[in-house]
Amino acid sequence: MIASLSSLVTSFWAALHLRTLLLAAVTFLFLVNMLRSRHPKNYPPGPWRLPFMGNFFQIDFEQRHLVLQQFVKKYGNVFSLELGRSSVVVVSGLPLIKKMFTHLDQNFVNRFLSPVRERITGNNGLIGSNGQTWKEQRRFALMTLRNFGLGKKSLEQRMQEEAYHLVEAIGEEGGQPLDPHLKINNAVSNIICSVTFGERFEYEDCQFQELLKLLDEAMHLQGSVAGQLYNAFPRIMKYLPGPHQKIFRNWEELKLFISHIIKKHQKDWNPDEPRDFIDAFLMEMQKHSGRKTSSFNEENLICSTLDLFLAGTETTSTTLRWALLYMTVYPEIQENVQAEIDRVVGHKRQVSLSDRDSMPYTNAVIHEVQRMGNIIPLNVPREVTVDTKLDGFHLPKGTVIMTNLTALHRDPKEWATPEVFNPEHFLENGQFKKRESFLPFSMGKRACLGEQLARSELFIFFSALMQRFTFKPPINEKLSLKFRMGLTLSPVKHRICAVPRL
Ligand code: HEM
Ligand SMILES: *[C@@H]1O[C@H](CO)[C@@H](O)[C@H](O)[C@H]1NC(C)=O
């Protein structure tokens, strides 16, 4: 009896062709996938998507902010994409972006945590946290940045000192071709380091240079195909070897570096004399100790410090590198900047922030560098906090939102020469003119926390370099304005000559 039953089963299986089975399985999975990713009524339109993969392979990761143009043309200012397990909506156009970040700010205030970021910080720190933790950490960071010099003399002096060191270091090359990347990175990083750790690092400090390299590498990998693949398919990628694993190794090392500095602070901490961000945070931890719901704990200390370090280094440094590159490509503009500095500041004294109002041309050039450099082309993604209506479309809670800053910065209706570097965009009758379609720091409650600091740094460093050097391409070389895609758009590796001015 049992024997005949088992033979029946065997013949049943034999009768089913293996291919039929496979086909059934695949169809089943397709259906499950379709049901899972069915969108509500009035969801923004978007291109046809593959099951599981979504639109992943329709996007060229080396220029992902550009290649989707066809979709904008076809679907308009609000369209959707499916990237792995995330539903993404891309919003373009000043009126909509302004509406999102003013009237509807609360609905878009949350940060989207990519799986990479999720694994690195969880809901800790400044950039990737949400809810109460974000509110507490952001308020505290803003206040502390202010207390340790933002808007005060001391931080400006630190910037001037650092600019002096940078000029010295670059001057040592005697006008020979150099890649200024690491020196600029180090100088810029020293400003945020002095606020957070209370110290600056020498440009020869190998350990610090190594860390900056780890950071640069991690950022680059996070924006690369490997990083995006991890974000799209984290559960599979987690177990596969590849460059994405390096992202996590680098972050572990960066965290270790910060923990080490925190330990040192704890040893010689004097609550009566907070020296920097870490000291102030330790104080806050003591105040809130025993309260479980407080976000002032060691994990947030590490992550917030790391976030300030990360956000305060790469962005400003990349912008400065674009600035020097644009000056070599537009020597007449460089001459105009130098003439203004010579007239307003002269050769002897250091540039200070109070000179900015008397230097509209230089100020306009820096803005134009930020417009053209466009280093964060799709802003930092947000997440919809509650079901929201935007421009007649329904955006369910949890939808990932990208705002297309590139579209603003290159809008032919807004800029006289959208694709050409032209400081006149920010000038009117020789005076500096603000522009609404210029949002490199984004806007609203979640906008860049370091805007003021960044703008001060850009002005002091750029002016100090222009005061001392003329930047030129190496002989017989043509410098390229091509970008490298990472978490920011940065210039491709290049060398440049800093010829001392007399
Ligand atoms: C040229 C330099 C910089 C640019 C272009 C820039 C741009 C941005 C952008 C576009 C965002 C996302 C805002 C949003 O979601 O709407 C952001 C966030 C942020 N930036 Fe900057 N940034 C720069 C420099 C700095 C500096 C120097 C600091 C250091 C204090 C900093 C700290 C932050 C932090 C902590 C956030 C996260 C804020 C939050 O999520 O609440 N940034 N930045
Ligand atoms: C953003 O805008 C630019 C300029 O209009 C366009 O080329 C690009 O395709 C847009 N990107 C996305 C993702 O919408």
What is the topological layout?
Layout: H1 2-15, H2 18-36, H3 64-67, H4 69-75, E1 78-83, E2 86-91, H5 94-101, E3 110-111, H6 115-121, H7 131-147, H8 153-171, E4 177-178, H9 181-196, H10 206-223, H11 225-232, H12 234-237, H13 244-267, H14 277-288, H15 298-329, H16 331-344, H17 360-373, E5 382-383, E6 388-390, E7 393-395, E8 400-403, H18 405-409, E9 427-428, E10 431-432, H19 451-468, E11 469-472, E12 483-485, E13 489-491, E14 496-500
Parallel strand pairs: 2-8
Antiparallel strand pairs: 1-2, 3-5, 4-14, 5-8, 6-7, 9-10, 11-14, 12-13
The structure holds protoporphyrin IX containing FE and 2-acetamido-2-deoxy-beta-D-glucopyranose.
Protoporphyrin IX containing FE binds at residues 111, 126-127, 138, 192, 307-308, 311-312, 315-316, 319, 375-376, 379-380, 440-442, 446-450, 453-454.
